[in-house]
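Need a sequence for this fold. Nothing fancy.
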């Protein structure tokens, strides 16, 4: 078994042509560029002897005719808008070349990991937790097109949705760029992922009193905007006392109503999230968040209401798979690897619900991702491919 890294790199660059945008790609889910990339990928799978096709949600499954036990490997092909050429695509091409090297690997390409139409609809469909009624209600978050219309325009309407054969697979593997600076900053080439963080998303709604900005005295005001600012400052002061080393939190959206310069805001809405791989840390921060909201309501004239939007579960990588990838990394890049959590969500977190799963990272130059300047050196890409192949060989041994 030998992986051809030159062909691996050539396929990565060939895939880059579909939806090329500056040095990156613009390949939104089910766009013509995305569907062209999927058709090209199916043809490459067939060239390598796999049985491949696109199902009714846009997933690609390439079945390897080699006798088992089999591994499943893959990622996603679509991109964020005007984004990078490696996010997702790297894991798909790596899976293709695991199979091309002679290993009994099936290749999976999951639709819409980037969430143009919904949350991980491809991997959730494949693992059996996406219902038809949810598909009926989904639409594109940028331009509003219903998912059903997009599937019809892409020629996928009426096709069955393929679901995982659990007994066929020993494990799932996904290779990805780090999307951060930990590896590059330490001069490392490989990250063995210990787990994928959960994202706990909250909505905080604050009720004030809309009024004239010039004639309402400061003593009379019920300013929802200032209450929101003070509440967020309190949260940012308290969280560092209770978080873990890699916990992050973000107020990604703050909307004031009516949002005019000469009107005191009568309402504020905050979308707030925090991420960690440890469920106990997540629960601890929930308690802190609730205490902050309660304290704000004690101090302020504008009441705040906290509502949970989504509370996902961390996905811990299988220890035996981690060890196999770590041993492969030490064999091929001694001293140039580390174990690390993933701060972003990935399809692997849903595959981990139905089979052992693990991920491996390669460095991102300057830590950039979800932008067209996203890049990784060819040396690091080739090393990652070799380590992934060696890790897969050890898992199957």
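Here you go.
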């Amino acid at each position: 078994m030998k992986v051809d890294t030159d062909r691996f790199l050539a396929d990565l660059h060939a895939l880059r042509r579909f939806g090329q945008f500056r040095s990156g790609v613009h390949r939104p889910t089910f766009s013509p560029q995305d569907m062209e990339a999927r058709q090209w990928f199916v043809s490459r799978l067939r060239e390598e002897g796999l049985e491949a096709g696109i199902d009714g949600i846009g997933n690609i499954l390439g079945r390897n005719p080699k006798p088992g036990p089999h591994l499943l490997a893959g990622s996603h092909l679509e991109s964020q808008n005007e984004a990078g050429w490696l996010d997702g695509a790297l894991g798909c091409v790596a899976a293709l070349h695991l199979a091309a090297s002679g290993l009994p690997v099936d290749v999976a390409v999951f639709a819409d990991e980037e969430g143009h139409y919904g949350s991980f609809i491809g991997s959730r469909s494949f693992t059996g937790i996406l219902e038809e009624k949810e598909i009926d209600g989904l639409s594109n978050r940028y331009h509003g097109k219903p998912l059903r219309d997009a599937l019809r325009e892409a020629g996928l309407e009426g096709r069955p949705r393929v679901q995982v054969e659990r007994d066929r697979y020993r494990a799932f593997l996904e290779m990805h760029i780090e999307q951060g600076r930990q590896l590059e900053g330490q001069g490392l080439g490989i990250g063995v992922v210990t787990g994928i963080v959960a994202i706990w998303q909250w909505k905080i709604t604050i009720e004030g009193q809309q009024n004239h900005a010039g004639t309402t005295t400061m003593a009379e005001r019920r300013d929802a905007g200032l209450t929101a600012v003070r509440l967020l400052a309190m949260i940012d002061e308290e969280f560092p006392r209770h978080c873990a080393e890699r916990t992050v939190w973000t107020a990604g959206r703050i909307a004031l109503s009516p949002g005019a310069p000469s009107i005191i805001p009568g309402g504020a809405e905050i979308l707030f999230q925090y991420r960690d791989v440890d469920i106990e840390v997540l629960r601890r921060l929930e308690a802190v968040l609730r205490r902050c909201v309660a304290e704000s309501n004690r101090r302020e004239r504008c009441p705040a209401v906290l509502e949970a939007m989504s509370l996902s579960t961390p996905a811990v990588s299988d220890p035996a798979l981690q060890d196999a990838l770590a041993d492969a990394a030490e064999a091929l890049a001694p001293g140039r690897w580390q174990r690390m959590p993933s701060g972003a969500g990935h399809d692997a977190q849903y595959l981990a619900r139905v089979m052992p799963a693990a991920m491996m990272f390669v460095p991102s130059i300057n830590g950039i991702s979800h932008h067209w300047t996203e890049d990784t050196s060819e040396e690091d890409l080739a090393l990652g491919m070799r380590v992934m192949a060696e890790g897969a060989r050890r898992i199957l041994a």
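For context: The first strand starts at residue 20 and ends at 21.
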